[in-house]
Amino acid sequence: MLVVGVIIEYAANSLNRPFSYAYFGNESIVPGIRVLVPFGRNKIVGYVVSVTETNDTIEEWEKNTGFKMKEIISIIDLKPILNEELVELAKDVSSYYLAPLISVYQTMLPPSLKPKKSSLSKPKIAYDQYVQVITEDEDGLTPKQLELFRRLKCEDLVLKSSLKTTLIPSLLEKNKIRIVLKEKNRLEQEEVALVKDNELNIEQQKALDSILYENHSVYLLEGVTGSGKTEVYLQASKKMIENGKSVLMLVPEISLTVQMVRRFKSRFSNIAILHSDLTPSEKYDEYRRIARGEVKIVVGARSAIFAPLSNIGLIIIDEEHVESYKQETTPYYHALKVATFRAKYNEGMKIVLGSATPSLETKSRALKGVYHQLYLTKRFNDSCLPKVEIIDMLDYKNIDTDSVLFSRRLREEINDRLSKKEQILLLLNRRGFAPNVTCRKCAFTFKCPSCGIPLTYHKSDRLLKCHHCGYVAKMVDKCPKCGGESKFLSMTGIGTEKIEKEIERLFPNAKTLRLDSDIATVRTSVPRIISAFEKEEADILIGTQMIAKGHDFKNVTLVGIVLADIGLNIPSFRAGERTFNLLTQAIGRAGRHEKEGTAIIQTYLPNNYIIRNAASQDYNKFFNEEMHIRKEGQYPPYTYCTLLKLSSKNEKEVIEAALKFKQLFIAKFANLQVDVIGPSEPFIVRQDGKYRRIIMLKYKKMEDVYNVLQEVVSLVNENNKIDIKINVDPYEDY
Ligand code: ADP
Ligand code: ZN
Ligand code: ZN
Question: Of 541, 608, 539, whose CA–CA distance to 580 is shortest?
Fold first, then answer.
């Protein structure tokens, strides 16, 4: 019989090892294919990792090993679903992030190919029918049939559905033609006219030459929006393709893939697109096109880093500082880390990181010479930077007597732009109407039953929503605790809906649009709102960070940041960096074209260094000051971190487990440079109703903690009452 090593679809650390199954069938079974296997009382999907032949019977094998042996039910694939590079890459990712191997395979593959039971009901290959002439012989045809036959003869293959005729069956019957099936590509791509490359300026040329001909593995291409980074990506890609290599272009968000795809299609007609907004069929078809080598350029979001391209010459990560490149669920990978792993299997592969505000990690590596630094300092469109004013909202002289939300200055400027028919963006990075509903009689606060954080009131649908887990409840008229009437329920804090209401009150004639993730729950709403605003169908666009990113609104000359402090109070060492990025982005939306732009920042922290540096658009000053703070606290990039997340239905158990881990760490790390912080109760107190504790490890070298973390993973196996997740290089830390 054959003994087949199978890793099963359950992505748990405790099951992260091959299970042995017997196979007696006569189909070919090789590592890398999916099989259906019994597991406990279920039939599930497994991924074959080894096949060995033995002369033992099942009984003998069970006696020798002491394990029970079951049989494989059926084979799913004819060929391995991953190429050799991806098989090895998965091992690297699984080992660095201490993640179950199967979870990496599941992340790498499109829904139809995932080693997971759900894949079995996902789309299969679709075919198009083509008509092909198979003879020169025109005998025996009626005049009408002959007319069609002669037309078909001029072509190699004709799509059957494109023929408006009922004559096909008779031509088939007379053996003049046959039907050829070809795999269909269900993703319809927009047609884009090809344009010529731009002639590069000196800095761009220098950057391009360095990427192509110098011998560095990672480059940081630092330049503000409009400085021509994309042009460099395009021309570097072209050269790579000419040299027979392939190219992977990553963008941080789906909404930005559309623009990037358009830019790439204007130079290369054949590109593949991979992101989570494609349907399963589209993903499957694109994936196979790439795997077959039919396309050499892939544009996509985070998980496209696993695209089955071979012979990669270049991986570009645009807006590298954006956090969406890190997945914050198992496997907790970062696309840049995966890119560096891929370099091992693609000789000479280059990585280019592009940003106007590089992450602190990236910038400090560039300063140390680990990454090669390239600059683009000139803008192509001669738009100048906007004028920025900081308004101190604690100073009563600045506050509008008629509104607590708007300062006099912001209100004046809004009035001014409305009268000039210029457009306005108002940013407030919090959706909903009020982030807190409290009873003034008994101090009861509405909280999410599953996360324990305050619920936000959404006025438009009269609902209370949890912004963490999506829990929703109807707003009630009485306090659930003391029965106090609705007049006692006070709504504090502000959200985008409140701004919208306030604008309606103060500027009844202004047309407004709102954009936040409440609105984005309907797939088509975001492009609809963006395009309506572009077409100047509204005067004011109110929104969360969604309005700050990437969009190029020509007539916007005023950006108002209603409260810049949101985000700064979050207990994360990254809070400052996040806020700086958001504010600089938002300010950059003002006056991107001929007219001069103004940005007004309302804040209670007018002297805060983040707000000051964002206002002066001074990345270097921000970098130096923030690095100083990171150094004081010994946070990345001065150290590396790993976050241990524990949760359990039983609060006492999770506290005890956390203390045990703490002791284990203290003992193991006694002589090493490793800091153990916590256990502490995280900001999101509960997850899926389970109580949580976190422990943060800070260290200089991964080697110092790796073995201990592996030990933790094996402890997890024994203790299944506590759910343990390990996030290496986390972005969540609170
Ligand atoms: P970034 O990616 O840094 O935002 P882009 O590459 O999109 O910058 O360039 C900004 C604008 O300038 C685009 O419209 C682009 O077509 C144009 N551009 C870029 N490089 C050149 C060049 N060398 N000559 C002329 N126009 C250019
Ligand atoms: Zn009450
Ligand atoms: Zn919740």
Answer: 608
